[in-house]
Amino acid sequence: MSSNGFFQRQHLQLIFCAYLATMLSLASQLTPLIFALTLFCLGWRLGIFLGRLKAPSPWLNRTVTLVAASATLGLVASQGLFSVMLHLIMLGYTLKFLELTQKRDINVFICTGFILVATFFVFHTQVYMALWGLVLMALHLIIALALYGPRWQWQQQGKILGKLVLVSLPLCLVLFIVFPRLPPVWKLPQQKGATTGLSDSVSLGDIAKLSRSSELAFRASFEQTPPNVNQRYWRAMTMSHYDGTTWSQSLADKQQANARSSQVTKTGKGQSYQVVFEPSYQTWLPSLTLSQADGQGFSVFDGSLRSEKIIAQRRMFDLTWYPDASLTDVNESQRRQYITLPAEGNPQARQWAAQLKQSHQTASAQLDAILTTFTQAPYRYTLSPPQLGASQIDDFLFNSKAGFCVHYASSFVFMARSLGLPSRMVTGYQGGEWDENAGFITVRQYDAHAWAEVWLDGKWQRFDPTAYVSPERVDMGLESALPDEFLAGEMSLLRLRNNAMINQLYLAMAKFDYAWSVWVLNYNSDKQLRLLSRWFGSINFMQQAWLFVYLFATALALMVLFSLKPWQRPRLSALDKQFYLFEKAMGRHDLQRQTGETVSDFCKRIGHSKRHWQSTLTDYSRVYNRAKYGQVSEVQYAKEVMKLKWLLSRLK
Amino acid sequence: MRAEISPILQQLNQVIIGKQPQIELALACVLAGGHLLIEDLPGMGKTTLAQGLATTLGLSYQRVQFTSDMLPADIIGVSIFDPNAQAFSFHPGPIFNQVLLADEVNRASPKTQSALLEAMAEQQVSIDGETHSLPTPFFVIATQNPIDQAGTFPLPESQLDRFMMRIELGFPEMEAEMAMLQGKQLQHPEQVISVDDLLQMQQAVRQVSASEAVLNYLLRLVSESRYNATFTNALSPRCSKTLLQAAKACAWMKGRDYLLPDDVQQVFTAVAEHRLGGISDAKGSALSQTLLAAVDPLA
Fold it and tell me: Which ipTM score applies to this complex?
């Protein structure tokens, strides 16, 4: 450790901080195994720091590196390529941390740290995470500063760091706003992620779990007034297959679900809106019934929207809502699928359907009767219904009579199919919180909902049986419908919103976070082009490239100006300029004035080596001295400067 | 060289042969109205130069040989009871001369050395509560042996600071010493100018103009001594004032009525070295030279 002029102990403390902070920031993406290594390295490092242990020998380091690297490569199959890459870098970071002995090592450590901070931005896109990322960057920068300016005090280092960051801000902004967004040359391997949210099948009890999560699902902003709460049905997908316990998409549906379809007939006026989706690691896009997407999203057979790529990061979509449009097409094989029920099970429900068929003539009257039953009989809306027996629908409809949206929707679709009406289960979100001030709707996981669609009068119609049991759920949201059960047993900051001040703060932060998503995270080439053409008129790619070059050069020039501050430099007088030329001319003969040398001494010294100049040089120093130090009038001064010019010309 | 002073220099150059730069500095010191300290080994001509200077300028002078048992009264004078007048009468000491030649000043005890302080700074002495003015012009020309010589008390910094210049004579060139041995030395110098002439010259020296550029240079020199860690003793504001006066005298002697950085440089070692502590730096060059090399006259 003593070899090669080592860094100081305070650097080591900083490095400890930076290492731990970076490691813990990425902890959610790392396998627990690597933490064992981390603990080991930390312990050893601490031992070295306290002088109890020796640094590991190079061969041990190499062996551990090789073993750990090959072990990590073994994870490719289970973790995905991206994760493995991250682990490899982390491994290097950890082992380098143990190995630090020279400045060079610290440089490597800092650079690796920067790469890790960059990957941190891949996983975390929220504003406050971005700020934390900046802190991580600053930590690494401080190490670099401490390394190269070891004599500076903390405050001084902080000042320099702040200055550097401030100076680089304009460049950052120019790069961000104007730099052409080229299509990526390489792609990040798709990382796997687990998150709460809808899944592609639903059984009784599924949505209740979601209802306990206050995690953000998506946010939508409208150019005009948003739809009423009871109109906000954010449709994610439809399910047509029922196996007695679980609703899922039929095989045929799944095949069709990846194909574009233009079934939606645009009727009436469209209303455009923007939705910022949180990462769901799925492709479906919960959207108002019925919507169309431009760009990266497309409609599929059942009118729901899909994204071309899995949503692994916060992404924004421009959508158009057609409130008056309806889905009309359904072919024969689909129709058969939509009335299929398991061959047996739930006899009571089937029997009730047979009764309804006899007592009511039209299909809509039959469905109304079911809904009326939900209203009149003692049905209860609750998130914690009792366990159901083998015949779930029967048990629910005639026995427990307590459940939430999935129970009601699922029973309703079962009944509709028993009546011979094509129908399907729809999952998605309902409601959402409208922030008048900020202009967007926030939809959280607890807004997840299930309802039914029935093919009636030549089009698909929405039926939400939950609305009959608990109108509050649809009109005012889950919190009003179930104040006691809402987020029961969950730690959620949302509960603090009863406090007016905290609520204000929360709203302000939410607004900022939304703006961040729209303007920073989803600032893509389209948006860029739109913004630039708003500022600079219509603009093509080449013009944009030039614009970037100009702006970048301007920012760079400003940086140079502000760091050199030429306006603070004293202005050279005519005399000083003349003498500057003189010094330059002498410099060409390899004659430099020494720091403490006066002009006369300098001239004398030159005279020793250049004898033919001697008399001119004597004159030169005399005239210079008189003009510079004597009391001369302005006219005299100008004359002397001219004389110097002439004398200089003789020295060539 | 200005015509008025060339006869002075001519004569002094005959008194001490081959020491033109030191003689010029000594004269500049007198013209600037400052006290002069000549330091060297015994037998280098310190006293000769001091005497020659006083005689040439036509100043009344008295020489006092400082010894370790000297008391302040031996310099300043003493009040003695006169039985005839039934009163104390003051018998002025040797300090009541235009030039006090304090020979081997560092052989006296600090107490006696300090008796010179008021006289040098205020041009007056106080005895028994009575203040006596000293004649005009008034100079102390002191000689001292290097402090490593036996039986010396080093002058305190406060005393050193009151000497405008400290010059060293150094060994003469061989030709100069030869001329001396051949008896070409002037044994009895004569008065060349009158006291009035001297006062006029001093007045003229004060008239020399110093431009902002050169004052700036001077201040940068002084501040370098304060902020550069090489220098343990910083230069005082009194030193910058003294430096300016000495440099002006130097400029005037060369026949200029404005000051150049060259003048400052010329007197700098003599003015600043004893104030800087006079111990050479790591490379063995004088501190004042290190300081001069560090500051750009044109910056």
Answer: 0.86
